[in-house]
Sequence to fold (268 residues):
Amino acid sequence: MVDFRTKKLLSEKTIEEHKYIMQTIGFNTFSDFFSEQECEYFKERLHNAVKNYIPVGTDRSVKDQYLLHDLMVNDLSFAKTLEDARIQQVIAPLLGEAWVMYAYTSSSLPPHGNNYGSRIHVDSPRFIFNYPTNVGLLWALDDFTVENGATKLLPASHHSPNLPTEEFFEKHAKQVTCKKGTLLVFNARVWHRAGNNESDGWRHSLTMNVCRPYMKQRMDWVRFIPTSIAGQLNDQARRIIGYDTRLPSSLDEFFVADDKRLYKSNQE
Ligand SMILES: O=C(O)CCC(=O)C(=O)O
Fold:
């Protein structure tokens, strides 16, 4: 099991630059976020999960066969990635200290194929100028190359609500080629797509979409992730899952001492 609590923190200068890059360009990368061994460790687990995936029968569950939604529901090691203090450093300046997880997914491209993320899209339906509500994180578990379908993002496009044409996107997008272990962080309103994998191998990554703490999450993660997994996580990881933003379901749960509140104060 990887222990993310021991990772060296990012410098203040790196975070200051990150804030400016996110505000202007809308996406940024951090190399060596995972070591080679960590990439191999997660890749093996992810590859097995993709192989064992059985769609539940709807069209969307077939489309999402390479974008798995329940990795940390079945495997503690994925949930442990939420303990990494560097993700707090990277996200808190954008969404506030109490941000939570909207979705935790993977994005795998099969050899000579693509996935549902290969259409031009944004990861948040709401456009509020100069106020990010959602941010995407993508951990590259393989080298991302032009050949294997590295992610393409349209710089600064979070400043416009409009879907660019295919031609405009392909002319102006930047394809983020990078080494395995790199973390890509992007404003969820940046128009982007996974590339096409023209290689003979898989291109694997883990992804997370995070949001402001007062927003609804995609899943009721507190109920979906078994307590046998959530119970082994630190406070940061539990907060990201949603343990500090639960709703009381009775007056008994509402009228409690501050330290027992299900919905903690200051969720701004
Ligand atoms: O896999 C990729 O390159 C892009 C993933 C993506 O589109 C997403 O996470 O929304």
